[in-house]
Amino acid sequence: MWHIFVLMSKKVLILGVNGFIGSSLAWKILQTTNWSVYGMDMSTNKIEHCLGHERFHFFEGDITINREWIEYHVRKCDVIVPLVAIATPSMYVTDPIRVYELDFEANVAIVKKCVQYKKRLVFPSTSEVYGMCDEKVFDELTSNFTLGPINKQRWIYSCIKQLLDRVIYAYGENNGLDYTIFRPFNFVGPKLDDIHEPKEGGSRVLTQFIHNVLQNRPIKLVDGGQQRRCFTFIDDAIDCLVKIIENPNGVASKRIFNIGNPNEDYSIAELADMVVELVKEYEEYREQAEKIEIVSVKSEDYYGKSYQDVSARVPSIDAARQYLGWEPRVTLKQALKLTLDFHLRNKDYELNEYHLR
Ligand code: UGA
User: Fold this and answer.
1) Closest ligand 1 atom to the C-alpha of 271?
2) Which of 76, 167, 183, 302 qualifies as a cystine partner to 125, CB 3.0-4.6 A?
3) Rounded to the nearest whole angstrom, what is the distance from the C-alpha of residue 54 to the centroid of ligand 1?
């Protein structure tokens, strides 16, 4: 019996453990498994409830500096989840070199350590790799990647992640690397970005819209807001990630999984309307939500000339269904309500008072 327990227990290294995905993943692991989490990040504001847990080991550090700590922990742990990356579109156009250095150079070094020490790698790709693919549904193994020209710097992130996917795949084929690549499709939820972030474009669309309503500033629909996204609640996404890390009988090994919610496909204009309508349900914010203006702005004014957008992005999740038995369950409306409860009412669904299951 003891033997089985040892086999099942895992040491999971999460780099970027204080991020949106990392913090939720660490908490879920501590709550639902007997695994230990070794986490590194530069701050701790999203993992306060993990700190002090007997199976949570935190190190305050930077992946570009604390390389020895990382090497030691890659050797020590069973599964490596490197989540440090810049993933905000405004940064792709304003500071593409920083995106390249962190997202590519710093991460490829970690991939190589996993190859060297024969460790399982669970790596975040992105829905952005498909770029402006014109297929109705994006499939991990058959869809084309369609990116704009070099002067459209928005695609640097997509291109970096695509190359990392190809490098990891090649290490899998040629060097026996045990990996799973996952592609998040617009994960949303509490702690996505800092709601008080004052800089326009400095956060993902949902955080930006909530921020604008709270600050009595017009909601800006980039190029009219007809572009569509499939929104995935973080808790659903984390369930999928835990299954990938668990990896019973190697089902997730050497596979790529889209993690998204194809049923929750909305235009950005529809998202804006939903946010405003839902904020009206909070008595103390109703008046300002009623007055909020929704305006259209040109993408070149909002992001700059080197921005280009994706008009629609629907994931196939057949692979996650088939191999992991995973199905997203939370609608966008429920996700918005939980996110607003967190920001406007200080209710954290993760701390069980509000847990969905
Ligand atoms: C995001 C980011 O690249 C990554 O965070 C991530 O890898 C990926 O997609 C994902 O989560 O799947 P994007 O979907 O463009 O890219 O992210 P947002 O910044 O949330 O923008 C969504 C849409 O809203 C874009 O069309 C954008 O132009 C629009 N938008 C954004 C507005 O209309 N108004 C705003 O104030 C902000």
Assistant:
1) 24
2) 183
3) 37
Q: Are 15 and 83 in contact (CB under 8 A)?
A: yes
Instruction: State the residue range of the domain holding 237.
Output: 85-344
Which CATH number covers residue 182? 3.40.50.720
Tokens of 209: 């819209």
CA-closest residue to ligand 1 atom 16: 89
- The total of other beta-carbon atoms located within 10 Å of residue 75's CB is 13
* 195 Cβ closer than 6 Å to some ligand 1 atom: no
274 lies in a domain?
A: yes
Which residues share a beta bridge with 120? Answer: 79
Position 132 in a domain: yes
CA angle 34, 35, 38 (to 5 degrees): 145
Spell out the long-range contacts of 342-350 with Cβ–Cβ below 8 A and sequence spacing 24 or more: 342/189, 342/190, 342/191, 343/190, 343/195, 343/210, 343/214, 344/279, 344/282, 344/284, 344/285, 345/282, 348/190, 349/190, 349/235, 350/24, 350/27, 350/49, 350/190, 350/235
Position 355 pLDDT exceeds 80: no
Adjacent-strand bridge partners of 258:
183
Q: At what angle do helices 107-117 and 67-76 cross, to 10 degrees?
A: 40
Residue 19 lies in a domain: no
| Domains in the chain, number | 1
Determine the distance separating the centroid of ligand 1 and the alpha carbon of 207, expressed in angstroms: 10
**Contact criterion met (CB below 8 Å) for 284 and 210:** no
The residue contributing the CA closest to ligand 1 atom 10 is 186
65 is a domain residue: no
Residue-wise pLDDT for 14-59, tens only, equals: 999 999 999 999 999 999 999 999 999 999 999 999 999 999 999 9
